Amino acid sequence: MKTKRFGIFLIILAALLLCLTACQSETASIPVQSAYNITQNSQVDLTLLAVGDNLIHGPIYRQARERSNDDSFDFRPAYQQIASYIAQADLALMNQETPLGGTELGLSSYPQFNSPQELGEQMIELGFNMFSHANNHVLDAGQRGFDNTISFWRQQSAEKPVIMAGIAADATDNQLQILQVKDLKIALLAYTYGTNGLRLPKSSNGIVKYIDDELICQELDKAIAEADIVLVSVHWGQEYQANANSEQKRLAQLMADNGADVIIGSHPHVLQGVEMLATTDGRQVPVFYSLGNFISAQNRPDTMLGGMAKVQMAYDKATGDLEITELGVIPLVTDYTASYNNITVYPLNAYTEAQANAHGVRAGNSSFSLAYLYKLFDQRVAKEYQIWE
């Protein structure tokens, strides 16, 4: 019986091969894989959330140590008020402003930062899966801090669906960072204007992605060839400036015209505007010029207001078209009481007048209030891009 079935199988196989050979001669110009790309429902919906600078000053890591039961660090309470937002996102991006050199190097704050690696682990637990380290503080902890930061994230990427862009250990490590979500490839590129005058030693093989038109265009070419959606995180602009400057606008248009799908800005530590850019190939690309601080222990009233960018996207796998279906900024507030105690991030719509009146920043800025925060958000973000939820 087995011999008979095998013989029948060979006959059928031969017939199939003959048919395939004949079909190939008639339809050689049609790519076979296209049949698998077009499904009954080819649209994929994605939600991107992005925040600005995760700026870990001393009071933030000290309170995290005090909250830990095992001489480690527990940063989670500081972010608990916005955890539900991050949990709902397919893509959650942050600029990790401080290096994660770890406790072995000694923790430090302004002007040269170094943070514990438990912070990165807990940001992943919170739901963040895309991180940029292309910023002006990435070399604060020297070569060892730089190396430790990269080693930490590469280990995380080997175990979890997480990527980090903007720096690399060497040419071999300098690979396009792609996160696969819902059967789509999402690329993250990241660049910084500088590193506060610090440079890696000449003997170092490390790479920091500085803003450079040629580099940006080259990497965008590679990204659009290999990924379905391309995000760019860029550290630019002037600190504490309310509006994007001409160089930010020039770079944004350059990146949009060369293939960026969404541009997320950081560095000014304050909110700047949102804009939709028309590109030379007819696309519409959102740019968030600055999302301000995600968390910090700064002492200026305007640095207490940050933003969470929200971008709803619909990607058509059949055509490669990307549609932005919702776009805007959810306002966030960093709160702390006297002496920088109990630093916590809140959505503005859940923040109370009593909390604002007790904010530690009022010690030097008595004008800080809930009304001030709402007015500032109205000044920085156009109504059409404001999201309250």
Characterize the structure shown:
- The structure is a single chain.
- Strand 6 and strand 7 form a beta hairpin.
- It is built from 11 helices and 16 strands.
- The strands form 3 sheets. Strands 1, 2, 3, 4, 13, 14, 15 and 16 form an 8-stranded mixed beta sheet that branches. It has a 6-stranded mixed beta sheet with strand order 6-7-9-10-12-11, with helices on one face. Strands 5-8 form a two-stranded antiparallel ribbon.
- It is α/β, with parallel strands linked by helices.
- Residues 1-39 have low confidence and may be disordered.
- It is globular.
- The protein has a domain at 43-303: Metallo-dependent phosphatases (Purple Acid Phosphatase, chain A, domain 2).
- The chain has helices at residues 2-27, 34-37, 58-66, 76-79, 83-87, 118-126, 142-159, 213-226, 246-257, 353-357, 370-380, and strands at residues 43-54, 91-95, 130-132, 163-165, 167-168, 177-181, 184-192, 207-208, 229-235, 262-266, 274-278, 284-288, 293-295, 305-316, 322-337, 341-347.
